[in-house]
């Protein structure tokens, strides 16, 4: 599979862009475990052109994470074009346009998945961005706004005509948010449409090696994108790759390995963001690494309230002292990692 001149090999795995999740510290871990492509958190075009500190900071990319994309969202063509030009200066491998975020404050303003209610503007904006930058442009979107407007098969052709070089499809409508099951039948229909020439990336409910294999084998997508199942489980990329290559499941991480991983994540987060912000923004990850452990409430509270790095490291080290270094906790209630 290629995006522009970027050769990603066969059956590549993408880390989905997620706000307050896919920062460089988390991307570092996902790359370590085999993610082929990563994205920044999504960046508001208006914030970027106004040089909002948080938006500009999100543009930072590092050599270790390439190929990497910057994802933008907005509801005005002029602002999105200007933001794309700014993003291009950060030298991403490609720029992705977010037409899929279902969050109310974004979608109701006409950005993200809200653009599914204004297809002419979506197409105009996409074509303008493609023409404005020299690097590949891709799009991430959903099946449609609601069950009565699942327009993705026709929309995919129109987006292809704007000049984008790959299309990621989340198998839900905007109104579904993240509820119910993702509908992969329409993703497969897009992929098997003979008029489609660009790569199709499937997204939604990829939460295990088996679901990844099914997506490739049954629906024929060129790549899969994994989102919520990576939170507290960045090693899912290695799990999937091992399974696709050998048919065997990867040995579960031991508790000690998870503790060391959480400590590394904490270190990278503070390195990049400083204190206390680096601690604030890693809290959701720290507790999720140990979500399946029984009787964990007291330790979890320490992980999500402490603002002292040394105290957090001490708390993490105490987990193996309390539970030992067995991987039995991974086997216990394994599905809990996938429910967010």
Description:
The chain has 340 residues and is an alpha/beta fold. It has two domains: 2-246, TIM Barrel; 255-331. It is 43% helix and 12% strand. It is built from 16 helices and eleven strands. Strands 3, 4, 5, 6, 7, 8, 9, 10 and 11 form a nine-stranded parallel beta sheet that branches. Helix 1 packs antiparallel against helix 11 (255-273), helix 4 (77-88) runs parallel beside helix 6 (119-132) and helix 6 runs parallel beside helix 7. It is globular, with a radius of gyration of 20 Å.
Helix content: 40-55%
The CATH H-level superfamily of the largest domain is Aldolase class I
Beta-strand percent range = 5-15%
Low-pLDDT residue spans: 328-340
Distance between the termini: 30 Å
Features:
2 domains, disordered C terminus, alpha/beta, two-stranded antiparallel sheet, TIM Barrel, single chain, nine-stranded parallel sheet, 340 residues, 16 helices
SSE inventory with pairings:
Elements lengths: L1 E2 L2 E2 L5 E3 L8 H9 L5 E2 L3 E2 H5 L3 H5 L10 E6 L3 H12 L5 E6 L4 H4 L11 H14 L4 E6 L9 H10 L5 E4 L13 H8 L8 E4 L5 H11 L3 E4 L9 H11 L8 H19 L3 H4 L2 H6 L8 H9 L3 H15 L4 H4 L9
Parallel strand pairs: 3-11, 4-6, 5-6, 6-7, 7-8, 8-9, 9-10, 10-11
Antiparallel strand pairs: 1-2
Helix pairs in contact: 1-11, 4-6, 6-7, 7-8, 9-10, 11-15
């Amino acid at each position: 599979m290629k995006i522009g001149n970027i050769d990603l090999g066969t059956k590549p795995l993408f880390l989905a862009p997620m706000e307050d999740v896919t920062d460089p510290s988390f991307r570092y871990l996902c790359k370590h475990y085999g993610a082929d492509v990563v994205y920044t958190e999504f960046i508001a075009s208006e914030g970027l052109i106004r040089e909002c500190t948080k938006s500009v900071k999100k543009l930072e990319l590092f050599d270790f994470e390439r190929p990497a994309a910057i994802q933008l969202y907005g509801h005005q063509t002029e602002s999105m074009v200007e933001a794309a030009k700014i993003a291009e200066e950060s030298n991403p491998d490609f720029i992705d346009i977010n037409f899929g975020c279902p969050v109310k404050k974004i979608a109701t303003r006409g950005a993200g998945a809200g653009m599914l209610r204004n297809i002419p503007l979506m197409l105009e904006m996409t074509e303008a961005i493609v023409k404005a930058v020299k690097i590949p442009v891709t799009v991430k979107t959903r099946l449609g706004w609601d069950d009565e407007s699942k327009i993705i098969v026709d929309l995919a052709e129109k987006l292809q005509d704007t000049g984008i070089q790959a299309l990621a499809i989340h198998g839900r409508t905007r109104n579904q948010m993240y509820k119910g099951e993702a509908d992969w039948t329409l993703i497969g229909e897009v992929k098997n449409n003979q008029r489609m020439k660009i790569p199709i990336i499937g997204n939604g409910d990829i939460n295990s090696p088996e679901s990844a294999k099914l997506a490739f084998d049954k629906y024929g997508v060129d790549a899969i994108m994994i989102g919520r199942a990576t939170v507290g489980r960045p090693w899912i990329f290695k799990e999937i790759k091992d399974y696709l290559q050998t048919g065997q499941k990867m040995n579960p991480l031991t508790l000690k390995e998870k503790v060391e991983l959480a400590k590394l994540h904490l270190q990278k987060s503070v390195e990049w963001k400083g204190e206390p912000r680096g601690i604030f923004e890693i809290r959701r990850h720290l507790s999720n690494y140990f979500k399946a452990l029984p009787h964990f409430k007291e330790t979890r509270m320490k992980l999500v309230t402490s603002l002292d790095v040394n105290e957090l490291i001490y708390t993490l080290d105490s987990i193996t002292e309390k539970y030992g270094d067995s991987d039995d906790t991974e086997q216990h209630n394994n599905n809990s990692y996938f429910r967010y």
